[in-house]
Amino acid sequence: MLGAHVAWVAPTYGNSRALWRFLERAGLQDKRIVTRKSERELVIPRAGRIGIYTADNSVGMRGEAFDIVICDEAPQYHEEVWSDVLMPTLADRSGRAFLIGTPKGRNWFWREYQRGLADGTHYASFTAPSSANPLPSIRRAAELARQYVSDRTYRQEWLAEFVEDGGGVFRRVAEAATLAPMDRGEDGRYYVIGADWGRTNDATVFAVMDVERRAVVALDRMTNTDYNLQLARLRALSERFGNARVLAELNSMGGPQVERAQAEGVNITGFTTTNTSKAAMIDALALAFERGELSMVADAVAVGELQAYESERLPGGTLRYSAPQGMHDDCVVAIGLSLWAARGSGVGAVEV
C-alpha cells in the first residue's frame, strides 16, 4: 500500500525495544529509507512510514491517522487504549488493525476474537498453537514446557487457548461442544426448537435439541434477515426435524412472529422473558452443563457466547444474567429455550 502510515504498537517501552531494533536494521539496509531515531520512525519517500508506539504512553497516538495499526501483544493493553485511542486513528483513512497476542483470559481481546468468528465480513479471527511454528526450536520448547507448567498455563501460553477464568455462568462448555451438526432429524427421535428473534443488531437463532439425548444437534443463526425469511427458515427447520415443537421468545417482535408462525401451521408456543423466568431458564442450562447432562454442536460463536455470559447481583439479592457489553446472547437464549422446552416445564411459557 503506497503512502501508507503504519503504527506498530507494543504494550510498554521495554517491549518495543526489540521491534525498534528490527526496524532500525531494516533501515540501514536501504539508503532510500530515512531513519528518525528520536521519533523511532522509518520514512520511505513516496512509499509511506512506519513508527513504533507503546500502549502505556498512548497519548502520543492521539490525533494521528493510520492506514494500518499492528497491535503486538494486544491482550496486555487496557481496553480503553484500543477503544478510545487506536480505533479513532483508523477512522480518517479507513484503516485496518491487526490484533496479535497470547490470550489473557476473557478480556476485550477475547471479545474481539469472538467478533471475528461471528462476523466474517469486517473481521476475521485466527489462532495457532506454538507447535505450528515452522522453527524446530519453538516446537521443541513447546514440548518441553508441557512437563514444567500447569495445564492452564500450557493451554494459554503454548496452545493459544482462551482459558476460562472460573467466574462465568456456564462451566464445562468446551467439553460439551463436540457434536457435528445435523441437517435433519432421525426416525424415532423427538426434537424441540428454541427460537430467539433478532433483526439488525441481534441475530435470530434457532437451536434444535434432541429431547432424549439432551443434545443440541443443530443451530441456525442469521443476521439482517427479513422476518418473512426467518419464518420460512423456522418452518423448514421444524419440518426437517419431524415437525419439532418450537418455544420462542415473545418479547419485542416475538409476539407477532409467534402469531404468524401459528397461523402458518408451525407447532409453536411463546416464552415471556422476565428477569425471573430468564433466571430460571439460565440456571437450568448452567446446571445441565455443570452435570455433564448436555451436549451440543461444536459451534464457535455459540461456545463463545456461553463462555462469556455474566451474572450481576441486583440490590434486592436476585441475579441478572446478560452478555458482556458489546457482545450478544442470542445463541445462549435459543439453547436455553430448547432445554426449557425439552424439560417440559410450563413456567414462563404461555400460549398466544
Please provide a written account of the structure.
The structure is a single chain. The protein has 352 residues and is α/β, with parallel strands linked by helices. The protein has 2 domains: 98 residues, Rossmann fold; 178 residues, Nucleotidyltransferase, domain 5 (2-Layer Sandwich), CATH 3.30.420. The chain contains 11 helices and 16 strands. Strand 5, helix 2 and strand 6 form a beta-alpha-beta unit. The radius of gyration is 24 Å and the shape is elongated. The C terminus is likely disordered.
CATH architecture level-2 label of the largest domain: 2-Layer Sandwich
Specify the CATH class of the largest domain: Alpha Beta
**How far is the first residue's CA from the last residue's CA?**
58 Å
Helix and strand succession? Answer: EHEEEEHEHHHHEEEEHEHEHEHEEHE
- Round the mean pLDDT to the nearest integer and report it: 87
What is the count of β-strands? 16
Give a brief outline of the structure.
The protein is built from 11 helices and 16 strands.
Question: Would you spell out the secondary-structure blueprint of this structure?
Answer:
Layout: E1 4-10, H1 13-28, E2 34-36, E3 41-44, E4 48-54, E5 68-71, H2 79-89, E6 96-99, H3 108-119, H4 136-145, H5 151-157, H6 173-176, E7 177-179, E8 191-196, E9 204-210, E10 215-222, H7 227-240, E11 245-249, H8 254-263, E12 268-271, H9 275-290, E13 295-297, H10 300-308, E14 310-313, E15 319-322, H11 330-343, E16 349-350
Parallel strand pairs: 1-4, 1-5, 5-6, 7-13, 8-11, 10-13, 11-12
Antiparallel strand pairs: 2-3, 3-4, 8-9, 9-10, 12-16, 14-15
